[in-house]
Amino acid sequence: MNIHIICIGKLKEDYWTNAIKEYSKRLSKYCTLLISELKEEKSPDNPSQAEELAIKEAEGRRILKQIKKDSYVIALEIQGKQLTSEELSEKIQELGVSGKSDISFIIGGSIGLSQEVLSRADFRLSFSKMTFPHQMMRVVLLEQIYRSFKIIKKESYHK
Q: Is position 17 annotated in a ligand binding site?
């Protein structure tokens, strides 16, 4: 299975990059992982609605260029559906069984995702109704994908 994480912004802090490296290494046993970090638009301190829309659209165009035509797209979005770890593993397994071998997970920038990206998504996933830094969500997402593969393979995982 091919997992593509498409995200806005680059990780700057070592603790995030080290966590990403660790989960990438762990995931290499289960899938081919690609992480695409895309340019984050500069935002004024108090952007207007028009400025926010322009930022989302510019970032959205970059995101859409990264998505393969046949990829199943899961957008991380606060209004999306919340799943347990077991339900996410079932979703990933069902996609694989149904012949969907490319899954793209989308993490937007600090302002969120454009309507075009949300329209392209096959599924909208929420980890919580709370807002998290997008850098942190990358680590949380990779951990949950790793946990999903451990569940699918019926391998133990620390609790």
A: no
Mean pLDDT along residues 7-19: 94
Question: Is 128 one of the annotated binding-site residues?
Answer: yes
> Please, are residues 121 and 75 in contact by the beta-carbon 8 Å criterion?
yes
Q: In what order do the strands lie in the sheet with 72-82?
A: 32-38, 2-8, 102-107, 72-82, 123-126
Q: Is 108 annotated as a binding residue?
A: yes
N residues, the chain = 159
pLDDT of 16: 96
State the pTM of this model. Answer: 0.95
Domains belonging to the chain, first-starting first, are 2-152 (3.40.1280.10)
H or E element: which one contains 111? none
